[in-house]
Amino acid sequence: MITMKRIYLDYQETDGERILVDRLWPRGVSKERAHLTEWAKEIAPSTELRKWYHQHLDQFETFSQAYQKELLTNPKAVEKLVELTGKSQKETLTFVYGAKNQLENHVVVLLNVLKQYFKANVQKS
Questions:
Q1: Domain residues for 92?
Q2: Count of CB atoms within 10 A of residue 33's CB?
Q3: pLDDT tens for residues 52-106?
Q4: Which residues lie below 8 Å from residue 24, measured CB to CB, with a gap of 6+?
Q5: CA distances from residue 62 to 45, 53, 56, 67, 69 in whole angstroms, order as listed
Q6: Closest CA to 26 of 11, 43, 39, 37
């Protein structure tokens, strides 16, 4: 199973493997507190797209489409998504992120892509 959680929330054993899916390290979070298994920068939005969305927070649908395209046309990202989907068949993966908005952020898009294209078992929190 794959789920999502804000990195600022406390670690729980039920998180399983915690994978940071941001290009930037979250402010104020130590490596110990993060409890990360991995930092998967390659599946985070590009710097350009991240900056654009930060200036256009009211355009989540446009961001979603652009990010989905980025993911599916990037061979390294697709390879990573396949790997993570395989892992999620055996154990729980929690994608952690720093965004404040828990309903409209890149991890929501990422989970939709995994569910739609990779047939992953996804649970949105």
A1: 2-123
A2: 13
A3: 999 999 999 999 999 999 999 999 999 999 999 999 989 999 999 999 999 999 9
A4: 98
A5: 13, 9, 9, 9, 11
A6: 39
